[in-house]
Specification:
The chain is an alpha+beta fold and 181 residues long. The protein has 6 helices and 8 strands; from the N terminus they run αββααβαβαββββα.
């Protein structure tokens, strides 16, 4: 389910405690999701936020021009945090949570921001994770980033820790519509 404003303090505390990147101050549009069990216990946290401005592998995969990217980048989002809370031993929980979030993400994004979201991207640190949940969910791995990270809306710093880039269309043919005139 979509997290509510009152959940943000707890979300950030849990990310600080359990996510290797800690909580974040996302730039621009963003949605927070919570996965809960039948007793309303939190199982997972997902954050979707603004995409990277320039990703050569993503841009080539979509097949858009610089001008198309400039006009349509808001139709892409980044799965910037995904945390399965510790102490859980539920087979395929990560894959199921991610699939459920992606199923409702386009509808929620449209309702919140008044425009669709067509593609989702994410970065996986190969020193920390293998990306199994994304692979199992039908995401496409495009290669490694060049090792830059966003620190503010339009400011990036070189950190020399390339990440694996995964992408997924949220509806069939999304890349074609991102290329359209």
């Amino acid at each position: 389910e979509l997290a509510e404003r009152r959940d943000l303090r707890r979300i950030n505390r849990l990310l600080d405690e359990h996510h290797y990147l800690k909580a974040m101050q996302p730039v621009g549009q963003r949605l927070y999701y919570l996965a809960k069990d039948a007793a309303e216990n939190w199982l997972a946290i997902l954050v979707f936020s603004a995409p990277a401005k320039h990703l050569k592998h993503r841009d080539r995969w979509i097949g858009w021009t610089d001008e198309q990217r400039r006009r349509r980048l808001s139709l892409v989002t980044n799965n910037s945090r995904f945390l399965l809370l510790p102490g859980l031993a539920v087979p395929n929980l990560g894959s199921r949570v991610l699939a459920l979030a992606l199923e409702r993400l386009p509808r929620d994004w449209q309702a919140q921001y008044g425009h669709p979201v067509e593609v989702v991207e994410t970065f996986v640190d190969p020193e920390q994770f293998r990306g199994t949940v994304y692979t199992a969910g039908g995401w496409t791995e495009l290669g490694q980033t060049d090792g830059w990270g966003r620190t503010r809306e339009d400011y990036y710093v070189k950190h020399d820790k390339p990440k694996r880039l995964f992408v997924r269309e949220l509806r069939r043919g999304a890349c074609r519509s991102l290329q359209a005139e």
